[in-house]
Design brief:
2 copies of one chain form a homodimer. Chain A has about 240 residues and is of the alpha/beta class. Chain A has 2 domains: about 80 residues, Orthogonal Bundle (Arc Repressor Mutant, subunit A), CATH 1.10.10.10; about 110 residues, 3-Layer(aba) Sandwich (Oxidized Rhodanese, domain 1). The first copy, chain A, is about 45% helix and about 15% strand. Chain A contains 11 helices and 10 strands. In chain A, helix 10 links the parallel strand 8 and strand 9. The longest helix of chain A is centred in the middle third of the chain and has 17 residues. Chain A is globular, with a radius of gyration of 21 Å. The N and C termini of chain A lie far apart (about 50 Å). Chains A and B meet through helix 1, helix 2, helix 5, helix 6 and helix 10 of A and helix 1, helix 2, helix 5, helix 6 and helix 10 of B. Chain A binds a DNA duplex (30 and 30 nucleotides) through helix 4.
Chain lengths: ~240, ~240
DNA sequence: GGCATATTCAAGTAGATGCTTGAATTTTGT
DNA sequence: ACAAAATTCAAGCATCTACTTGAATATGCC
């Protein structure tokens, strides 16, 4: 309650109802306007996680992570559930995944400096073979292709692309002999800006194997309504 | 350059490249995190406009409006072009419209208080007949339906749904006799949270005519790739 | 050139934000 | 009931944000 320059609202209600409504919309964007909260959303898009794991993931103090989560909660982007002494957070619905994807899309298309930022985080991607979602969907049953999920195992257990095998990057080098030499290996992880799959493809090609990365990640696959499965031992492992 | 608690970046590049990348994504959301800038995006989704018109539309000083536009410009959400002494701003691409739609969707689905805010701005919508985009698309050629665009005429000229007639709310009451009594009149305006169409439907039904509002607005119609047309006299009129 | 119009720039202020540290709360295991 | 673990709450500080006012810039018209 402060300024009033001209008359009032456009037509109906009364005071500055329009301002308040648009402030309401903006509050959703505001909560995504922190890089740390964006990281949180990116992680939670893989499945629910307790506070301390999220805090480690985004490399912030637990108190600070908790406050970010409170904000996300108040804005309705995430929900929480208690299990014993832990509190698990997860995205409140698929609309949030679409929002996060829309933010990235705009950044990629229209933010000049983003290419540099991405390159400095992900390294040079020009030599990586990639595969689109549609291409994978068509070839996934063909038998001349193996699909590996290179995210942390807990996320694989919480949900993964149907038919994928879990091979974390940590294990990758030691399990090379278990991977086929004659088939194309497709790796995927959290999303288009996740390093795991890039690294996996680099390691595999360095060892003379045929490898490609799925351009997007698990959340986009699931959001598109494509087949997923879960090894539901218990949402998120230790 | 301040905090460093644990080690460093996740895997590749080096320093805090991940932090910077996600800060980059977040900067896109940040620019949408002001209600006033959201209003600007909502207006620019209808077509390009000069600064002073935008300033009037959002009921803010010209200086303040200009600063908001600078921010939107730096973040890549809008572009500008000079024509004589005026500078016209417009959205930089369809991804921005998708972003704005995603923000609204999340707000509607997950923000508890939004219903109240919307009701206080738009009034009680429960008695309004509505029509979905798909329904309109199917029935638009049938002849038992008239489509009217109730936005300001400048926006109609910049682009409108193919087959629509321009009838601003100001004119509406005086032009009632020009509207059919036996056909359903469908009104649309800027988007799902635009008051014009609501008011038009209320006026029409009060006068005993059959009327409905299109649930969404022109930008969503265009974004869906459905047929549009323009009376290109000159983008935005005076 | 000089005046008018449209827009941007610059400086100032009240208020919000992100992170920190340390204490308070809630649940589990004994 | 008591200690341990996970999380939240509260206070504090440095920084950033939104708006205001007034001056500066750029274009068009005479």
């Amino acid at each position: 309650m402060s300024r009033h320059k001209k008359s009032m609202g456009s037509t109906p209600g009364g005071h500055d109802a329009k301002k308040e409504l648009f402030d309401g919309f903006a509050s959703v964007a505001k909560v995504m306007s922190s890089g740390r909260r964006a990281e949180i959303v990116d992680v939670l898009a893989q499945g629910e996680r307790p506070v301390d794991e999220i805090s480690r993931e985004i490399r912030q103090s637990i108190a600070n992570t908790s406050q970010h989560l409170q904000l996300l909660l108040r804005a309705g982007l995430v929900k929480s559930r208690r299990d014993g002494t832990r509190i698990y957070y997860s995205l409140s619905g698929p609309a949030v995944i679409r929002l996060w994807a829309a933010v990235r899309d705009v950044a990629v298309e229209h933010l000049a400096e983003l290419d540099d930022l991405a390159t400095s985080y992900l390294g040079d991607r020009s030599s990586l073979t990639t595969m689109t979602r549609d291409e994978l969907r068509e070839r996934i049953g063909d038998g001349d292709l193996m699909l590996i999920d290179v995210r942390p195992e807990a996320e694989f257990r919480a949900g993964h692309i149907a038919g994928a095998a879990s091979v974390t990057i940590k294990e990758l080098e030691t399990r090379l002999d278990q991977l086929p030499n004659d088939r194309l290996i497709v790796a995927y992880c959290r999303g288009p800006y996740c390093v795991y799959a890039d690294n996996a493809v680099r390691i595999l090609t360095r060892h003379g194997m045929k490898a490609a990365r799925l351009e997007e990640g698990f959340p986009e696959w699931k959001e598109a309504g494509l087949p997923v499965e879960a090894s539901n031992t218990n949402a998120s492992g230790a």
